[in-house]
Amino acid sequence: MKLERLLSIIILLMNRRMVQAKELAERFEVSVRTIYRDVEAIHAAGIPVVTYQGTNGGIGLTEGYRLDRNVMTNDELAAIVTALRSISTSYGSEQHLRLMEKINSVVAPDYAEEFHHKTSSVWIDYAPWDGNERLQPKLQLLKEAIDSCLTVGLTYSNAEGELSRRQIEPHTLVLKGRQWYLQAYCLEKEQFRLFKLLRMKDLEIAPGRTFVRRQLPPETHDSARSPSGELPQAKEIVLRFDDDARHLAEEWFGIEALSPAADGRWQVKKAYPQDEWLYRFILGLGHQVEVIEPVHLREIIASRAAHIAEKYKSRAPT
């Protein structure tokens, strides 16, 4: 993009006394004429660019000129780099890496060590423990489709395991609760839906089939919505943990959420949409947790636990 190229040229000129137009043209894969037009645009923006003629000539900034560093403080630049590094753990992007390089290049040398310390003091890793390799091709394909406004065909498996072929207009990638989703307009359903990337397969960009971005309905910005597009109703549940499983409750809900129960165990009250995710989550906590309320949720978990136990009562499969 032109804006990114202009910013890159400015940063290069700040760090090098002089650069030849031919070198810039090769670096950004444009013509020398385009580079000179970029230089004119930079000069028009108030940055004093000077061109030097002759064999050893080139393009440079007026001697002694520096961009106003008050636009962003070193702490603000460090915060941006920290955020970019964290996002890159789940959503790798060459643009993120280039931007981090650019920011590092404008940091004063006498501040470099402190800057490195600040940008490495916090590390937020969004990637799952088993890595993110299986999602990266989907993320890259969908990002390309979003940027180019191209429709995408895919096979989707809903919460009930039903497969269907969809044609969608991708709008926004959403990272929610360590899971990637896509807000897209479904051409079959003729409405916006929230699709989970792990439930997608056989993704294909439709060549040449572009679309005009639609206005997102206000409610679609709520990333808590289910893939059906409906906002799930959260209801309070009460869980009780055995004393030796207190650490498990603290890990999931935080120390402040725990309160002592009358029977010596530990109790947690939280509001959740009561759906398949919740059933699997509670069963995944193991035998040291018990659903106290509501009664119907307790019965669902008991039924599923009994079904699991029944499978293991029979002899081992051969």
UniProtKB/TrEMBL annotation:
Coiled coil: none annotated. The keyword Plastid does not apply. The keyword Transcription applies. Gene3D superfamilies: Winged helix-like DNA-binding domain superfamily/Winged helix DNA-binding domain. Residues 2-57 form the HTH deoR-type domain. InterPro entries: CBASS_pafABC_assoc_protein, DeoR_HTH, HTH_11, PafC-like, WCX_dom, WH-like_DNA-bd_sf, WH_DNA-bd_sf, WYL_dom. This is YafY family protein.
